[in-house]
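This part of the workshop introduces the protein records we will be handling. The question running through the whole workshop is how a given chain folds. To make this concrete, we reproduce a full record directly below:
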Amino acid sequence: MSIERPMPPVDANERDMLEGWLDFHRSTLALKCEGLTDSRLRVAAVPPSEMSLLGLVRHMADVERHWYRRVLAGEDHPPLHYTDDDPDGDFHAARTDTWERAYAVWQGEIAAARTVAAEFRLDEPSRGRHRRTGLPSTLRWIHTHMIEEYARHNGHADLIRECLDGTTGV
């Protein structure tokens, strides 16, 4: 599989700009994982962190689900990879977890996020509530938060990938 990373527009309206940067960061995470075996993707290469590239992809699938389907759309979907007993379960990829499965689930959540987002204006309040504040969020806030979330975790992915095989600069 060859991952293509769309460049964000340099002159666009606010929505296209936000969605362009979000897609750029989504693709960046996929590129950080490209070409590695399942066993390499499971390696937590930056001690003492337990993060692995596969764990980051699983985490982002849950984050996409949470913000777009649960908060923005107000839908009732359980977490994919974590539980109350293991709140970091999304980061804990098991030996049986594969890139193929994690990638498919993540891409499914991204597709669902796009479908939900298309139904909302940037300034429209969500149907669900932020779990900490109890307040609705806007699509603008969620898109901005997701860009920040991906950018932060792409920094983690940079370090993990460099420790695994020296690859930098994607």
